[in-house]
Amino acid sequence: MKLDRALTSGLAVVVLWASAFAAIRVAAPELGVIGLSFVRLAVATVALLALSPFLGVRLPRRTDLGWIAACGFFGMAAYQLLLNAGEEHVPAGTASIIVAAAPLVSVATARLLFNERITRFTVIGSAVAFCGVVLVSVARADVSVSTSVWLVVAAMVVQGIYHPLQRPLLKTYRGLEVATYCMIAGTVMTLPVVPFGWSKLSGASAGGWAAAVYLGLFPSALAFVLWAYTVGHLPIATATSLLYLVPPVAVVIAWVWLDEIPTLAELLGGLIVISGVVLVARGDRLRRRPSGPEPAGLPTREASLPIPPTGATTTCTP
Fold first, then answer.
1. Are 140 and 85 a contacting pair, CB within 8 Å?
2. pLDDT tens, residue by residue, 229-260
3. pTM: predicted TM-score of the whole model, two decimal places
4. Which of 85, 130, 178, 212 is the most exposed, fewest CB within 10 Å of its CB?
């Protein structure tokens, strides 16, 4: 029964995170890049803080504030600003496919920061996925779209950096706690630029505000709570494999909600990206597989160290 609920929770997260790309396309033109970034982060922060006493979220240690600030900058503030700016012209489905390649950057970051060994699977998978990103990026020839694609690629890069930066924190705190800390940090970091986007924010329509509040409450706050439950009750490999569904679901949602029809090149590129990421994750899991049985009476690696493989998107925030 718990496994069924956890799987349902994981699939709900997939739908929520996939829907965020379409919601950004609705909200960004109304609230502006800066306004949407701040409102979404602020709404999610308020929601998570309200739930914190019931979810057992602890106060972080002062010594961990540096890691929290770094995660808040890359995973929240910079990612939101870049993705919102890019999606002003880039279709939601296209953006979701590009962001799906973030684990490639995570592999490189983990190599630099934590000296993680890179396997043949990682090299081959990265090359395959990179080809897919290139194909998706050049699929639409319009100049404004092509320029904005690079903003989405930059968003993918900072999101990829964010994932391994969580590792030192995940040794001490639960994933939901880390998400809460980073959300707060990202909101604070976005505050100084709010005056530059105030004029558009103050003139936004009710529909734009509704989309922004939806983004903060559901793909951000609720999805993090559901994801914490999912990874707590499913094997890490099973939970993270669900995230491969985000791009195709995002394409379908954008098709239905925004009438955005993906090109054949984008669909092909998306399949190539996902195939490459699967190869990277597969190789990483093979490398991490213990050579012998766990000692009796000790928790398994997944239970004692809830840090997914570098190639897995642990807390993607579309």
1. no
2. 998 888 776 787 788 889 999 999 999 999 99
3. 0.86
4. 130
